[in-house]
Amino acid sequence: MSDTEIRDDRAAGRLEAVQGDEVVGHIEYFVLDEPSRALVPVHTIVEPAHEGKGIAGSLARELYRMAEREGVVVAPLCPYVVKWAERHLDEAPAADPRLLTAAKDWLRAHPERF
Fold this sequence. Notes:
Layout: E1 5-9, E2 14-19, E3 22-32, E4 38-46, H1 55-70, E5 73-74, H2 79-87, H3 97-109
Parallel strand pairs: 4-5
Antiparallel strand pairs: 1-2, 2-3, 3-4
């Protein structure tokens, strides 16, 4: 993983793991504004040739670090990020259930986004 760069493409809603010129994995997310600001991961994808190398976990960890730097929370809808958070309670504080409900409502209202 040391040769993997993780970068945020906020405009596209993607946190990307990049090796050289190749995107080897990413988390698709959106920013929820109401009832409070949160990063909402929806999908985590790692290219098959790069699975099992810790890329998805590094992406999830960086998403939570990003949220912490921005003073917001993560409201995970992505099954992988939910499971990762359950295994890393010290790094991944639980989101308020109202945020999760609001995130699901936003996703239903914007089906074209994902």
